[in-house]
Write a structure and sequence with these properties.
By secondary structure, the protein is of the alpha/beta class. It has helices at 2-14, 43-48, 61-73; strands spanning 22-24, 30-32, 35-39, 53-54, 77-78, 87-88, 93-94, 99-100, 105-106, 111-112, 117-118, 123-124, 129-130, 135-136, 141-142, 147-148, 153-154, 159-160, 165-166, 171-172, 177-178, 187-188.
Length: 191
């Protein structure tokens, strides 16, 4: 629900897309912030009604991958909501299904992988690369030339020095300061 609300807020802030429905595994008739929640089986019907764009905010990479296959098989375009208060450099490249939250900053030549989420007021400095399914939580700051590998989770208020690699599936605990590389799967409190 949290990601759905953040995406809804981003869409409302910039008016690029109109939110017509939330898709869930709930029975029809429910509403979320006044927007109908419909069952995931309804995607084909939405496509037939002319819907062309979707954002996948399912919890977990496996659920997102499953929904991606279904959406792409129907010819639906997966979009990346960017909050109107975020700053994304003109040379930054965003993958599909990316989320960029309020007041986030994405620097020049940054690459953000598919389904990665950069939350409120996080900053990603120049020439950094974020892999797929990465989460950069609120208020975190990544120095330039940082590499964040797939499925890495960076907690709230983390500071990462320049030229550091955060390994795949690593977890950086909220409030940590990272000045050296973090290995794949490692849990980092302070390095």
């Amino acid at each position: 629900e949290n990601q759905a609300f953040l995406a809804f807020d981003a869409f409302q802030s910039n008016k690029d897309y109109e939110v017509l429905a939330f898709i869930g595994n709930l029975q029809g008739g429910d509403a979320f912030y006044g927007v109908p929640v419909i069952h995931s089986n309804a995607l084909k019907e939405l496509k037939e009604l002319g819907v062309a764009h979707v954002y996948i905010c399912a919890s977990g990479a496996n659920a997102q991958k499953e929904q991606e296959k279904e959406c792409e098989s129907l010819g639906l375009n997966i979009v990346s909501p960017v909050h109107s208060t975020a700053v994304v450099a003109s040379t930054a490249r965003l993958g599909k299904g990316v989320f960029i939250g309020a007041q986030a900053v994405i620097g020049p030549d940054v690459v953000v992988g598919d389904y990665t989420r950069v939350l409120c007021a996080a900053t990603i400095a120049h020439h950094s690369k974020l892999g797929k399914f990465v989460v950069i939580a609120d208020g975190s700051n990544l120095g330039g030339n940082t590499l964040v590998e797939d499925y890495c989770s960076v907690g709230i208020g983390v500071n990462v020095n320049k030229r550091v690699t955060l390994g795949a599936r690593s977890t950086i605990v909220s409030g940590a300061t990272v000045v050296d590389h973090v290995l794949e799967g490692e849990v980092c409190r302070n390095i």
